[in-house]
Structure formats: C-alpha cells, structure tokens
Inverse folding.
C-alpha cells in the first residue's frame, strides 16, 4: 500500500494496525489523541501531557532543575516519615549511644544524593557497631528500614542509607582524615551535638 500524501510505503501489517481514518490521512490510531485529534509521536519515556506519567504508565521524568541537576521523580508516599524528622530521630538514637560530635547537615539544595547527612563518631569499634545498630533497630521498630548498610566497625566507617538521610558513623582518625564536613562546607548545619 502506498500513502498518497507521501511516497512512503506502508506494509500490510502496519496498514492493518491503522484504523479506517488512518488509512485516509496516514496517521496511525495510536498517534491520535483521545478525541481523534492528530498529535505528534512522542519519544519513549516522555510525559503524556497533563498526566505526570509516560505512555507505558511509569512516572515521567521531570525536567532538570534550573541548576542542571535532575528533579525528583515523585513525592514521598503518604504517611512516610519526613526526612528532617527522620534525621533528628537518628541524632537522638546516636546520642543515646554516646556518639561524639554529632552533626546534621542539610544537603538538599546541593545534591540529589541525599537531603541530610548525619555524621558522628565513636571511640572504639564496639561503640561504632553499637551506634549503627541502635539507629537501625530504633528506626526499624518505628517501621523504617535502611536501604543499605556499608562498612564495618573494623573498617572504622559505617554508612547507613535511608534514602533522603545518609548516616556516617566514623572513628575519630577516619573522620579527621576524610573531613566530610569540610567537603560539604556549603551545606547548612542544622545542629551540632558535642
């Protein structure tokens, strides 16, 4: 079959997928809007206008933020703990295990990596484990599980990933060496417990 408006050849299997109106004007039915209006074909993963989802039903990616970083795809589910509330609870749990020099940094305006960092120190390998375990167990009892846990007390750096909140439990020499607070010096310090 030859489309008369153009010199494009349409094979019969494609012609069968076209409705009668498509055979008349060369626009496939799946390229028409809901009311039969013609629309431009969209690239995969682009948003169906006004819906917030792409053609496959997945959340459509947001346009980049003005600073060029990608936007977040969707808000937190209803009933989820707010990141700042979770970060403050983590500080309380670390404080209960006598963590030293606890710092809560707000990173949300600087990176999509996390909204908050909680950085604290423990004086021994046993205390590092106790601090990390108290945070994991305390939040788990409240219905929040970590996405991941990296490092061990023997490595002197334990990282707990709660998505919007990342916790660093370090031995003092490693904390002095890596200087996370200095690396993230543009982050706003929400609180410091010494």
């Amino acid at each position: 079959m030859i489309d008369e408006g153009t010199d494009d050849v349409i094979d019969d299997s494609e012609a069968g997928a076209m409705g009668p109106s498509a055979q008349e004007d060369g626009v496939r039915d799946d390229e028409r809007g809901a009311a039969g209006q013609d629309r431009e074909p969209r690239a995969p993963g682009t948003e169906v206008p006004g819906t917030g989802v792409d053609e496959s039903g997945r959340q459509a990616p947001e346009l980049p933020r003005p600073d060029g970083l990608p936007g977040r795809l969707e808000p937190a589910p209803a009933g989820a703990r707010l990141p700042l509330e979770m970060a403050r609870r983590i500080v309380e749990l670390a404080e209960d295990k006598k963590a030293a020099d606890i710092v809560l940094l707000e990173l949300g305006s600087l990176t999509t990596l996390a909204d908050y960092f909680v950085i604290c120190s423990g004086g021994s390998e046993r205390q590092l484990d106790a601090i990390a375990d108290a945070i994991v167990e305390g939040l788990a009892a409240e219905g929040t599980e970590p996405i991941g846990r990296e490092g061990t007390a023997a490595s002197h750096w334990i990282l707990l990933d709660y998505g919007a909140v990342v916790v660093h439990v370090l031995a003092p020499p490693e904390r002095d060496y890596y200087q996370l607070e200095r690396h993230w010096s543009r982050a706003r310090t929400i609180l410091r417990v010494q």
Residues 5-25, 27-39 have pLDDT under 50 and may be disordered. Residues 83-193 form a domain with the Beta Polymerase; domain 2 fold (CATH 3.30.460.10). The chain has six helices and six strands. The longest strand covers residues 100-106.
